[in-house]
Amino acid sequence: MHPLVDAARLEARLGDADLCVLDCSITHQSYDDRPAYGNGRSSWVEGHIPGSQHVDLVGDLSDPTAGIPLMMPPVERFRDAMQAVGVRDGQQIVLYDNNFSMWAARVWWMLRAAGVDAAVLDGGWRTWTREQRPVETGEQAPRATGTLTVSPRPDLFATKDDVLAQLDDDTTCLIDALHPAVFRGDRLDYARPGHIPGARNVSSIHLVDRETHRYLPIPELRERFDAASPDTAERVITYCGGGVAASSAALALTLLGVPRVAVYDGSLNEWSNDPALPMVSGSTEETGRR
C-alpha cells in the first residue's frame, strides 16, 4: 500500500465496509514553556471525516509503564486499542490529523511496526476542509469490530543503546526532525538544549507544504535530505522529542525509497534527561531547508 492517499480518492470510498478512517489529532499545549499534548477527542467531536474514529495517542497508544511520554506500548496493548476503534483485518486504514500529518505519521509508523498496512491522508484535515469535503459532527461508535492480526517488526524502532552505538559508526545516518531553533540549542523544549552529536537537522515542518499540509513532491523531498545522504547509509535513525516528528521524517524517507529506517522512540524525552549522554549545540549540521 502506498503511504499516502489523496482526499478525492478517500471521499470516493467513504461508507465502504472495508474502509477504516482514524483521526489522530491531539491538542497542543505548553507547560513551563515546554511542549505538552492532550487528547484531541473534543476536536474530533466538533468535526471530522464522516465515519472516522478518534485514536488517543497520548493515552491509549502510549506505554503507561515506560516513564517516558509517547512511547510505543506493548504490541498487545496497541492491538487492543486499535481493535477498540474498529480496526480489523482486511481493511484499508487511512489516518489523518490537524497538525501537518505528524501525528498521523506516528500512528502509521506504529501500525507498520506492528506489521499492519495503512496510509496517511495527504494534507490531512487542512486539505480536507479547504477543499470543502464532507464533515460529520458528534460521537459515533465504530461500525464493526473484529480481530486485528499483528506481526511485530522491532527493527523499525531504535533504542537509546542503538543511538549510542552509532555515535562512532559512520555507516548510520542520524536525522534530527525538530525545529532548527531546537536543534541549534537556541530554544529549550527538553531537559537540555541542542542535539545528539553527529545528527543532521531535517525538520519535519519543512517536509510539508505550509498551506496545504501535503507532503512536498518527491524532488523537493529529496533536496531536503540531500546533505544528510540517507540513501548511502546502511541504516537511518530519525529522532525528535517524542518520536512524532521523527515518524513524519521516516514516512518521507519511505516515500523516497530509503530502506532500513528506524525511529528512536525515546528521542530527546529520554536522551536529554540523562546527563551522562552527550549533546551539542550549534548549526554546523543543519540542513533540509530551502
From TrEMBL:
Entry keyword Transferase: yes
Cited SMART domains: RHOD (SM00450)
CDD domains: TST_Repeat_1
Record SUPFAM superfamilies: Rhodanese/Cell cycle control phosphatase
Keyword Transferase: yes
GO molecular function, one term: thiosulfate-cyanide sulfurtransferase activity
Positions of the Rhodanese domain: 15-137, 168-280
Region listing for Disordered, in residue ranges: 133-152
Keyword tags: Repeat, Transferase
InterPro entries according to UniProt: Rhodanese-like_dom, Rhodanese-like_dom_sf, TST/MPST-like
Protein name as annotated: Sulfurtransferase
Organism: Pseudonocardia broussonetiae
